[in-house]
Write a structure and sequence with these properties.
Oligomer: single chain
Bound molecules: iron/sulfur cluster
Distance between the termini: 7 Å
Number of strands: 4
Strand order of the largest sheet: 1-4
Radius of gyration: 11 Å
Strand content: 15-25%
Length: 68
């Protein structure tokens, strides 16, 4: 298991991390709106994270941190 952290002050809700997570565990939080007006991404099942880093690599705003 890895710890997935999204810094929502940087996230712009583009959904790239959602599209590229092979485990399908990244989702946009539709009931949350950031100060910049976006639905931020979050990890819905940390247990399934393989720490592949796809999400962190794809994120254009470097908002995702993966800790093994
Ligand atoms: S590190 Fe890989 S498995 Fe974990 S949330 Fe990111 S894309 Fe998904
Ligand atoms: S790729 Fe980055 S900016 Fe886009 S939704 Fe995911 S965390 Fe947010």
């Amino acid at each position: 298991m890895a710890q997935v952290t999204v810094d929502i002050t940087f996230c712009k809700g583009c959904g790239l991390c959602v599209d590229f997570c092979p485990q399908g565990i990244m989702q946009l939080e539709t009931d949350v709106i950031t100060q910049k007006g976006y639905h931020p991404a979050h990890c819905v099942d940390q247990e399934k994270c393989t720490a592949c880093l796809n999400c962190a690599t794809m994120c254009p705003d470097v908002a995702i941190t993966i800790e093994r």
